[in-house]
Structures are given as C-alpha cells and as structure tokens.
Amino acid sequence: MPGAREVRADHDRATIVMYQAYPDAIADVAVKQQRFGPPFSLGRMTWIKPSFLWLMHRSNWGRKSGQERTLAVRIRREAWHEALRLAVLTAFEPRVHGTPEKWRQAFEAAPVHVQWDPERSLRGAGLPYDSIQIGVGRTVISRYPERIPGQAPAYMLAWAVGEYTEKALGTTRAGTQVSVWHLPGEAEVATTGTLHLKGAVDFFEQRYGTYTFGRKVGSVSANWGPGAYGGMEHHPYWHVASDAMDDKLVHQHEAAHGWYGNGVRIRCWEDFVLSEGTAEYLTARSVRATEGVEAEEAVWTQWRAALARAVSRGDTLALPDSTCNEIDIISHPLWSNIPYMKGAFFYRALEKRIGAAAMDRVLAKFYRRHVGGTARMQQLLDLVQAETGYDPGPLAAVWLRGLGLPAEIP
Q1: pLDDT at 202 over 90
Q2: Assigned CATH for 144-258
C-alpha cells in the first residue's frame, strides 16, 4: 500500500502534471493559447494538485459551478520542488512546527501553502492514504511574462519560482521598464549588480535598435544551487544565478542577448560566437556608456586573464563554421569560455581598426536586417566589409578560426 503521505503524479525527468478545475471562460483561453490569460488572475493564490481523481471528487466530476473544466498543466519539476521548499502546512502539526504561534507566523508569511487530503477511488470513496495539494501565491506565480510580442526562440521560455521582491530600476528613453527580482536576503547584492542595468538597456536600444520582446524587462534571481554562476537569456525576464546577483557583467551580458542571441538568433551551433561573443562585446560597450572608458578598460583587463585561462584549459576554434549544425554543442569543445572571450576580443580588435561609430553602424544594420530571424557569423563579416571597406577576414582568421593567443591582444 502507498505511504500515507507521498506525492503520486504523472511525471518525467523534467516535468510533472498538475490538475486544476476552471470555468469555461478560463479554460477556453488556456486551451486555445496554451497559457493562462484573462479572466485568469495572477492576483490570488492558485491551487495545484497532482491527483486527477481527488480533483474529480472535489469538482463532482465537473458538475460544480466554476469547476466544469479540468485542465492538465505540465510544469517543470524544479518549479514544483521550489514550491515545496517554500510551503507551510495549512494546519498546525506539533512535530513540525513546535508551537501554534510559530506555525501561525510561518503560515501567514509563506508564499506557498500545502495540505494533505484523503485520496479518492474512481467511485469517490476515501482511501487510507493522502493526496497533496499546493496553494501557490501571487508572489511565486508571476515571475514570467504573460506574452512575448516578437519572434522568440523556444529556449527563451522559462519560469522562476520563489518568494520574489521586485525592485524597479527605472524606464529607458524608449519607454522600456527595467526591474530586478530578487529572493529573500538578496536586496543588497541585487542593487549592486543592477546599478547600471537600466542605463545598459537604454544604450542597447539607442545604439542598436528597438527591443522586441516586451515593454518590461529585467533580471530574475535563479537559485541553481551551490557553485552555479552566470545567467540564461530568458528574455524579457532573463535569469541570473543567485551567486552572481552582485555581478554587473552577468546582468548586462544577459540583457545584451535581447539584441544578439535572441533578437538575432544563430542559424547553426557552429556560429555560437555570433551570440556569446557579440553579447560579451556589447557588455563591455555598455560599461563604457554607463561608467566611462576607465571602467570599461578594467573589464578588458579582467577578461585578458579569463582569455588566457580559457585557452590554457582547452583551446578550440571559436568559429568552426565549415559545417552547420553538425556538432553537438553540449559535448563539443565550443561549449566553453572560448567563444565568449575570443569573440569579444575579435570585436575589440575590429573596433580599433574601423572605429566605434562604424562598428555600431554595422551592428545596428545587421540587427535591423535579421531581428526575429537567424544569421551566420560570416554574414556579419561580409557586412563589415561592405559597410566600411575593411576586410575583417585576417582578424577572423586569427581570433575566430585560429588556435592559441594572438601576438597582439587589444
């Protein structure tokens, strides 16, 4: 017989199925759009249950008013685990809470509630073991965009689950609202890391073109566990590892992907440098725009050491573009810091030859031409020559299609 309290659910390695009962108005929108939308409200707690039969009993097999339609909602398992981590039982239990007062304080502050009810048979009879249900508060369920207006790659889709506090950072000249969402205890590091984030987004918009993924953007803290660092470009709410929340370069790098990496996507994995190398270069340029040349030079000094480490640990071509999508990016040596560092220094070397104004003109034109679609790095190299008359081929041969450290590192 199953344990008295254990989670039984339809699941795979990555996801778990929850059931919810709704009226037709909410269910019709959810089924048609494959996401929840009005009249569904994010302003109230929503309850999710992995037991289909328990929900059938609760809704009287769809005959209760407002519970006529039962939806199966597949969520990521890490979101489920995070909800459980934040949850407090809806009833006092001495062995768990100690005293009723401690339970009451924890319950009132908890963003997630959990309770156990008797599981049900097909005929609705109570069974001698329980089924779990989780009540998820609005502070937990609202850390994802309701819609993304521009053409977006599938890898941009993500949810962050936690007890978040939003800090508004201001609005850019183009009208984009910029925020940071941090977890408890992260207010100070989040403030430090995003001090210039609004200015960076404003720079990208003014210099390279219109942002296409919505009118509100920002960094969301993601607790990926000890030792995890960096971020993921889930625009418009990109994720930053909790351990990196005080690092401005991570925040501004992920923001830059709104233009290169997500705005302009790579056609082939072999063009990984078009995403990561370009975003890294734009990160340094955003530091120049928001803090000045000396601050930017400090970044390049830091990156020279990172470049040397990357090469010593396992050098590879930053642009192995003789093929297209014939490599497994996860197992290939390209999945390293090489395309980030060699790509960024390629752009810096190119800027020193054609000037920052010409570089920005090329990147802006390339963005306008390919935003919402895919491109290859060679197309960008061709545009450099067409727009400036300078052939970037020799620089690309040294920085992108060659091994080792070039003799001259700008």
Answers
A1: yes
A2: 3.30.2010.30
